[in-house]
Amino acid sequence: MQKVAFFNTALPGGNLVPTQVQWSSEKAFQFYSKQHWLIGANYVPANAINQLEMWQAETFDLATIDKELGWAQDLGMNTLRVFLHDLLWVQDAEGFKQRIDQFLGVCERRGIRPMLVLFDSVWNPYPELGPQRHGKQGVHNSGWVQSPGAVILADESKWGILKDYVQDIIGSFRTDSRILAWDLVNEPDNPVIEYQATELAPELKAEQGFKLTRKAFEWGRAVFPEQPMTAGPWRGDWSVKNISKMNRWLAENSDIITFHCYGNAKEFRRCIRLLRRFRRPMICTEYLARANNNTFEAILPIAEKYNVGMMNWGFVSGVSNTIFPWTSWQQPFVAEPEIWHHDILRPDGTPYKQMEVDFLKVMAKKGIKQALHQH
User: Fold this and answer.
1) Of 33, 185, 206, 222, which has the most beta carbons under 10 Å away?
2) 8 A C-beta contact, residue 88 and residue 165
3) Residue 372: what pLDDT?
4) For 130-151, what is the mean pLDDT?
């Protein structure tokens, strides 16, 4: 792993070093034209309840990761979206970066270039290091944790540590070709209704999430990464007339456009159409909600036609329980659902649906190198 010290953005005398600016549209398309059609998944090992359990030294399981990434390689996947956490850096920055380096080594051997996510605003707002709680039976993603937690998100006087985290992680890997991109903040204004009793008020959460996102871009650009930086809209109307201030900012400031879509084929086409006006490559970093007719068969042909990269939520079914729908928070399941919500494989690597896996392999083979022509 290339070692890079903290970047000093001030010269003697107080003059600031110019920071990186947003990539031009031309540079973004040049980057994207060098990629095969991107197809992959959001990844956490089957034996990890959340991103802390995935990465903490005591539970970091490189053998399981290698095995599961081998299955991803067999499906033809060439990317994954993987979540980090600020507390892991606070706990042991060097050890955390060494484990990231090991993970990237496995990815490289498997022909996979991951997108790394630095912050996440979804699920439990009070993360804690150490042994993680067991998941709730039949409940979707009951152990996932936010980064940063609500206490730090609400108190900007504590954001210095977040700046150091962003700049050390991105700075240490800024020239690492094994990394596809940096996703700075996942769903920054998600109100997480399942935690409303303890979560920040939705208006405050949205305000602070938007502030943190803007700061994260500023901090990241100050260390000049060679990989693109992004954060994507995930809800709302993205039309010219109705797009929110935050979603417009995300689309206008990301190097490449990322977004989430759990709607049907018609809604997915609309997402693409509305975001194409920003004249940048696009990657859908979350999809797959089978009961919503958001399936591989319905969505991937559209994405391949428009060269939109795709990362579905979930890969191997495990303790995160994402085969269960979001509604399981209100009504937990007592048995495996007939229709899986997310995920593709069972813990032993066998597919939930063989026809689905066969289709994925066919689509992955279409992932030939191509340039976009929208610009």
Assistant:
1) 185
2) no
3) 40
4) 97
Q: Cα–Cα distance between 64 and 170 in angstroms, integer?
A: 26
pTM beyond cutoff 0.85: yes
Spatial separation of the C-alpha atoms in residues 112 and 94, rounded to whole Å: 24
Tally Cβ neighbours within 10 Å of residue 196.
11
Token duo for residue 206: 């949205």
Mean pLDDT value across residues 206-212: 98
CB atoms within 10 A of CB 5: 9
Q: Is 111 left (phi over 0), alpha (psi -120 to 50) or beta?
A: left
Q: Are 221 and 244 in contact (CB under 8 A)?
A: no
Four-residue CA torsion sign, 292, 297, 302, 303: positive
Q: Tell me which residue of 242, 243, 237, 290 sits closest to 262, measured CA to CA.
A: 290
For residue 170, count other CB atoms closer than 10 A to its CB: 27
Region 300-306: mean pLDDT is 96
- Sign, Cα dihedral of 86, 78, 248, 168: positive
**Full DSSP string of 275-329:** HGGG-S-EEEEE--BGGGTB-HHHHHHHHHHHT-EEEEE-SB--TT-TTS-GGGG
Structure tokens at 342: 């997310």
Q: Is the pLDDT of residue 18 over 90?
A: no
pLDDT at 239: 98
The total of other beta-carbon atoms located within 10 Å of residue 160's CB is: 9
Count Cα neighbours of 254 within 13 Å in the Cβ-side half-sphere. 28
pLDDT digits (tens, 9 = 90+) for 226-251: 999 999 999 999 999 999 999 999 99
Model confidence at 294: pLDDT above 50: yes
| CB neighbour list of residue 151: distance below 8 Å, 6 or more residues apart | 126, 158
- Extract the runs of DSSP E, i.e. beta strands, from the chain: 39-42, 79-83, 115-120, 181-186, 229-230, 257-260, 282-286, 309-313
Break the chain down into helix, strand, coil percent, rounded to 5.
Answer: 40, 15, 50
